[in-house]
Design brief:
Blueprint (H helix, E strand, L loop, with lengths): L2 E3 L4 H7 L6 E2 L6 E10 L4 E2 H7 L5 H7 L11 E2 L4 E11 L2 E4 L4 E3 L6 H8 L6 H7 L7 E3 L3 E3 L14 E7 L6 H8 L3 H8 L12 E7 L20 E5 L4 E5 L5 E5 L6 H9 L3 E3 L2 E5 L2 E4 L26 E4 L2 E10 L4 E8 L3 E4 L13 E4 L4 H8 L1
Parallel strand pairs: 3-11
Antiparallel strand pairs: 1-9, 2-7, 3-6, 4-5, 6-7, 8-10, 11-12, 13-14, 14-18, 15-17, 16-17, 19-20, 20-21, 22-23
Helix pairs in contact: 4-5, 8-9
InterPro entries: LysM, LysM_dom_sf
Protein name: LysM domain-containing protein
Keywords: Signal
Length: 383
Amino acid sequence: MGFALLPVLVSVLTIQYSAAQSFKCSSSYPSTCHALVGYITVNNTNLGAIQSLFSVKNLRSLLGANNLPLNTKRSYAIPAQQVIKVPINCLCNNNTGTSSGAPIYTVQPGDGLYHIAAEVFSRLLLFQQIAAANNIRDVNLITIGDKLKIPLPCSCDEVDGQKVVHYAHMVKSGSSLGEIAQEFGTNEETLARINGIKADSDLKADQPIDVPLKACNSSISGDSFDFPLLAANGTYLFTANGCVKCMCDAANNWTKVYIFKPLTISGILALQSANFHIIYNYAVLVRLHCEPSQNKPSKWDTCPSMKCQGAEGLSIGNSTAAGCNRSTCSYAGFNNSTIMTTLVQDSSSCSRTASPPSNDVSRINSSWDCLFILVVLCFHLFQ
């Protein structure tokens, strides 16, 4: 049986990479979610190789995370130094988040733990973390053919009361918190707080930083097998054993609510708990759009019915409108034998056109729906 030796002194590496590359999870009990990591390709490669490296079950999951067309092949070429978003299952436990179950890496001739962490997985984690996850006592000695768990960093925490998709972004040399925040639609204060960073000087090049990506609001039931179903803006995913495709597209599926009075703290919390993003004098809600995928299901012979009860002819993704009243059949989750649906009523979609305020979110569209907030919500907003 062959052995792979760590090519450099562990003591030197421990000093150079002493900072732990882990993301915080505040949950005191185990919880799971979907997350993303930004893999920077070392050499020219293809989607199939990346899928295999990260043990991604379905190619379409990788395509959706990068908003690539569904007909993209595994042989699709990816040049060196390109960032590919890789979907992972995240497990939060003991205030730390790491990938659950995958990826699993098979040790190759000439491998060392440092090489695997720094070069194969592009510094997304430290070699010490691989050793700890696999109970390796002597990090200088690993066996060819060993199957190693790769504990990638992730989180399932809400951020400022909102559900988000956590993304492990690799910091580039010379980057600032402001630049990263602007690129991903967040703010410097949030990035600094969730990463325990006080200033730009605390950023370390070629190490991951936790970036919260805004997610579309959905109607997923709490007892659904895929709860909580979160998709970051500009991505799509498949669920319900592949029968349902869900897309998060802020350019098309969003609602704008004007705020005419100063919000109280309880009002802000009420909007945030409903996943509204508050921007100056209005709030924006981006909705998850789901529809039948036309795929062959992975665990069922055929996909179950996706029609909404009480709405003749409406199935998931379809809407009907009468005046200001709009009814949409929305995906609500699935269980062993059923795809759940819910009829979402929007009795306030009176559309008008105007020049939106000048900022990134409102530039998405030049028209919006004026949403009349329900009496119950108004009570929380302005009491």
